[in-house]
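Kindly inspect what follows.
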Amino acid sequence: MGIDLSVIWFVIIVFATLMYIVMDGFDLGIGILFPFVREAEDRDVMVNSVAPVWDGNETWLVLGGAGLFGAFPLAYAVIIDALTIPLTIMLIGLIFRGVAFEFRFKATPSHRPFWDRAFVGGSIAATFSQGVVVGAVLNGFPVVDRTFAGGPFDWLTPFTLFCGVGLVMAYALLGATWLVMKSENPLQQLMRTLSRSLVVIMLVVIAIISLWTPLAHPAIAARWFSLPNLWYLLPVPVLTVAIAVMLWCSLENPKYHATPFLLTLGLISLGFSGLGISIWPHLIPPNITLWQAAAPAQSQGFMLVGALLIVPIILVYTFWSYYVFRGKVQPGEGYH
């Protein structure tokens, strides 16, 4: 039995996407949480908690996009064509967020509020657009003769907009629990309070999407609720509820600092796995599988050599940067 390069590349792209969601998610979440924090010193602590690592987190987005382009060119072409508007808004948001991230430290006191608003707006726009993209992928794309056959606003549906709001809440929870781990005193207490509210909101969002998706797509309903699939997949919702309960309890106990963030990562990962289960093996739902969208095996094999070299380097760099900048962030300290 030969090696299935398409499956290998699918795993690489899914891994890169998940790494981006959980790692860039919390620093986008910090921008989303900015309006809840008024003290300039606390805002500086929030930004300094991710300042050494935030730009490296987006390496995973580049890896996932480049992998999709090279390994599954049909999927890349269809997704870019179908989602031009939300993807462009996402990129503009990331640009504003990145520029504001650096400029707010250099700005005069009179200009800093502008860059703070740019930081908030860029973070929300990028996150909301990513949620819309996820919802649009779940809805699927019409493809005729290997070309997207829909219109420029097919992505604009109540379901995709709800997914956008849901991802904003998810990233806000990631950001809040990250700050529980990285901050102290009043800021940490505020983040514990916000996190408890966000846990409840997240459970509601997950429940609505879990019902809405199978009701709108009979194939997804059959995937989750037919026997024996129901028994095989039952651990996903059970673990989701169990982790949410543990997360709530860890937020109530002041001795837990890193645990809420780690549990939130588990909650987000389970939600992402649910998405994968729903669409597998279609890379362009509802009809185009990953094998149909794949590049020639020679191209995938050539790219795989490079990926096997670069992915370990990215992992080592990521681990080392987080290790070096571990611990609490104190007011007044930062790399700027």
Remarks:
- The first strand starts at residue 143 and ends at 144.
- The longest helix spans residues 185-216.
